[in-house]
Amino acid sequence: MSMAMRQSSLKRYGSKEGYDADVMIESRAVLSKDDFVSTGILTYAQGDIMEIELPEYDVYQLGDKAKVTLYTKSGLFVLETTVVAKEPGSLIVINPPENRKRFSEKREFPRVTVNQPGLISSIQNSHQKKQNVFENPIDFAIKNISMNGLGFTIEDNAMVDAIIHKKSQLQVTLDLGFELPCQLEIIRKEKLENSFYYGASFESVPAEQSNALRGFILRNQIETYFEQKRDDEFKKAMEKKSAANP
Prior knowledge:
Blueprint: H1 3-13, E1 19-20, E2 27-33, E3 36-46, E4 49-53, E5 65-72, E6 75-87, E7 90-94, H2 97-100, E8 103-104, E9 112-124, E10 132-146, E11 149-155, H3 158-163, E12 169-175, E13 179-191, E14 195-204, H4 207-244
Parallel strand pairs: 1-8
Antiparallel strand pairs: 2-3, 2-5, 3-4, 4-7, 5-6, 6-7, 9-10, 9-12, 10-11, 11-14, 12-13, 13-14
Pfam families: PilZ (PF07238)
Domain PilZ: 105-218
Organism: Paenibacillus roseopurpureus
């Protein structure tokens, strides 16, 4: 096979990586399950989820496995997926890791905005051998989370500010509707008006809790997307109404 033919084949079947994720948007998507095939349009792809608009959305049920063939400007891509949400006229399906690797995104993992509590039970800094263990754990508020880290705030507290630094190791428990004990490492710190904001990476998450964390992030990503979509539709409707009645 010539080099030109090989490059064409790689592009056609999506074996190369580094495509811009935008090439999928508005592409034709063919879904198939069992003996049923339907055609729609891919309208959203970010992080772990994709939205496909199609007339026969009601044929698919939550949890259905399906094969998706995408006809994009950069070639043809085939992937196996699962239906995780639906609404009239569209399905939300999983964007599997092997497909995400083909397309460039700003973040390796999707980050979702949340408002959940957490507790710090101990802090250890790199220059200290002894851990600061708290008889009364310190409250914090989780503001965003992904599979590789989170952002949280602590109300203005001089004692806490004095002992949490970049590279500090924290033993915490996250309340995500289930308790998730884990270890964090602080990677950045920012003073806000009445609190401190910390960015942290996960140093350890119990293996048995990893799937629960992924499920929590996925649910929030879907909910956030639907809320944003409805807000956008409402704004467009209001703009249309205003234009019709100047």
